[in-house]
Write a structure and sequence with these properties.
InterPro entries: BluB (IPR012825), Nitroreductase (IPR029479), Nitroreductase-like (IPR000415), Nitroreductase/BluB (IPR050627). It comes from Methylorubrum salsuginis. GO terms for molecular function: oxidoreductase activity. This is Cob(II)yrinic acid a,c-diamide reductase. It holds the Pfam family Nitroreductase. This protein has about 220 residues and is of the alpha+beta class. It has a single domain, classed as 3-Layer(aba) Sandwich (NADH Oxidase), CATH 3.40.109.10. Helices cover about 35% and strands about 10% of the residues. The protein has seven helices and four strands; from the N terminus they run ααβααβαβαβα. The chain has a four-stranded antiparallel beta sheet with strand order 1-2-4-3, sandwiched between helices. It is globular and about 60 Å long. The N and C termini lie far apart (about 45 Å).
Amino acid sequence: MPDHLDADETSGPPHFDTAFRARLGDLFAWRRDVRRFRADPVDEGALRACLGLAALAPSVGNSQPWRFVRVSDPARRAAVTADFERCNLAARDGYADERRVLYASLKLAGLKEAPVHLAVFCDSATEAGHGLGRATMPEMLRYSAVAAVHAFWLAARAHGLGVGWVSILEPARITPLLDVPEGWDLVAYLCVGHPQEEHADPELVRHGWQARTAEAARLHER
């Protein structure tokens, strides 16, 4: 029996012990945005297991609007990479002086190295959930897809895989490129593979872009 579960696991919900919670904290802390990948392939079983765990993410009205698309076609992958490079140059030119030089030195995607590309869409046309919870906050549908991305990310880390979220892309160009159904909105483009290196600190901290802030963990009272 796993040592993080109580003996009554078969008769009720699991009770996670202190050791498990500590390991869970390690998982969250070591979940990093990876941009440097090894070339070795990703085990298909591990990838499917991670997708299965992602499907356990919460969703508004039980709508489950996430749609994962594996981008394997070399021409499509090259077009995505070209769009990143175009957008990245434009983003660099939005900075000046030392910040621009620092931006240019950062590695912000592993599109050429990662063995797996996953485009994650939100199916805004889904009828699942019957609109529950979306009348006043329709954006909850997209937030649900983001929750699935985060669940996939943690699952991948637990399987020894790295994930990089590439946001320096133009969705209006990427979506038609991937020939997905109408009503699917791009939420995330993920690079997945085995990391070249392991670091507990975020890459942007390590390379001097910005330190972690205390404000991020502050609880505001009203």
